[in-house]
Amino acid sequence: MSNISKLPNISIINEEAAKWIVLLDAQELSEDSLKELAQWMQQSPLHREKITKQAELWGAMDALQELSALFPLPAVEPSLHKNNNSNNKNNGVLGLLAALFRPRVLLFSFAPLAALFFSLVMLFSTPAAMVLTTKVGEISKHTLSDGTQVLMNTDSELVIEFSATARIVKLTKGEVNFNVVKNPKIPFIVYAGEGIVWAVGTEFVVRNLGEFVDVIVTEGQVKVFSDTKKSTDDLHISTDFPIDSKLNELTEALVSANESLSFDNVIHNYQSEATENLHKKIAWKEGAIILNGETLSQAMKEIMRYTDKKIIITDPSLNQLTVGGRYKTKNIDELLSTIAEVWQLDVQYTLDDKILISSI
Question: What structural domains does the chain harbor?
Answer without folding.
Answer: 4-125 (no CATH), 130-277 (2.60.120.1440), 287-359 (3.55.50.30)
